[in-house]
Amino acid sequence: MPKFLKVDSVSVYDSIGYKNLHPLVSVIPYASVTPIHNSLNQYGVYALFLLENNIEELNYGMGKYDYQAGTLITVAPGQIGGREDDENAFEIKGWAMLFHPDILRGTDLENKMEQFTYFSYHVNEALFMAEDERETLKCCFELLKDELETEDKTNQDKIIVSLIDVILNYCLRFYNRQFKTRKVENSNILAQFEQILNSYYKTEKQLEQGIPSVKYCSEQLFLSTNYFGDLIKKETGNSPNYFIQQFIINRAKSELISHHSVSQTAYNVGFGSQQSFSRFFKSHTGQTPLEYVKQKN
User: Are residues 197 and 171 in the same domain?
Assistant: First the structure.
């Protein structure tokens, strides 16, 4: 049974000599705490880890991954990550930023957190930053660290939240750049997406499981649902759900033109009832299935 370290506060590094200066936010330059021991962490805070040296075999969820220098890893409350302590200390370079959800309460940033979907990405979908991007993020961490250390506390929490907002938006920009610079890989994923849908119907999974979901497709690609959705949206302008719906509509049209009844078509494409299929079909085509057949005839 693995032993977890519960990271419910930002003062987790206090035990190894780093003095935290704010109850809800911490910025740690690893140079001040290295070497450190591994720990398998259960997070109750948000965290960003900028790695500036290679790290081998970190856990995240059920997987293990290696990371190269220049990687940014993000975690959110409720997630698990790290590596069980093997009692060997290791050198680490880079930065960590931790902030508790309570620092966001009542702020505009609290309402915007859902747009930073990279917090729910799998760690194997980490951000690999260019050198100038790393320098930008390091400058932001240093600015936030300076604010935490200042003696003038006037409007400090507002300034801290504003700086966190800036950092998160930079990460969003850098992730968008990563999507754009992986065109070949992304187009391959699009092709695999279509193959997954074809295979789903070829093996008649829809008869037992219903119409395919975005979650099912992303799992077949070993991607988190959010990362998959963002990738498809950035690449095509449409969501994965849109592609699934269009795939089903095209398949249903072929069934109807092949003289299958509406009820048989509904069953064949994975709907539990003729009524729900007819509503789905009309919402996407502007016609009922019977009106579509009549027009084609």
Answer: no
